[in-house]
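Practice problem 4.
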């Protein structure tokens, strides 16, 4: 995903997370919150809190891990 596409994502949107830890928890998640001053994805290092649609698992991820 390009940074311009990431910047269009908002809380509640569904995304695919590519878990860098051997893809253990990769899957479809929704964005619970975006931890920036603006509440928007600003760059590749922006932190997002996501929740799995299937299991309810929560993760803190970098925008660069969203595909």
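Answer key:
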């Amino acid at each position: 995903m390009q940074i311009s596409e990431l910047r269009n994502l908002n809380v509640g949107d569904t995304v695919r997370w590519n878990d860098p830890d051997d893809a253990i928890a990769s899957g479809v998640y929704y964005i619970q919150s975006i931890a920036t001053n603006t509440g928007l994805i600003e760059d590749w290092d922006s932190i997002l809190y996501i929740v799995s649609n299937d299991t309810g698992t929560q993760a803190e991820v970098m925008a660069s891990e969203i595909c």
